[in-house]
Amino acid sequence: MERTGGRIHHADEYMRYLAVQDHSLSYKTSMQKAVNTLFKFQDFKNKEDAGWEPEIKFNNDSTSHNPRGFLTDVERRKLREASLEHGSVPHYSLVTSE
Length: 98
Description:
By secondary structure, the chain is mainly alpha-helical. The chain has helices at 3-19, 25-46, 73-86. It is elongated and about 75 Å long. It is built from three helices and no strands.
């Protein structure tokens, strides 16, 4: 088996193993992302394009990169303005020695 084909085979074998393990979907998704990142790095390093497409795909929709917005834009703006006013330090020339 050639080097690239061997890597693909081992990655798919690991995904099949992972599929039957007692881990959360989030964990499985993270592991698959890590293997995919490793493939991209090795392809870049070796000037190859293996283009690994996993036989089994884990997808966890809750692993969003967008944090949940707890404050509205207006609330966020007011909070920012208040914190800037509260913690403002007067300019050096405006402070007396007393």
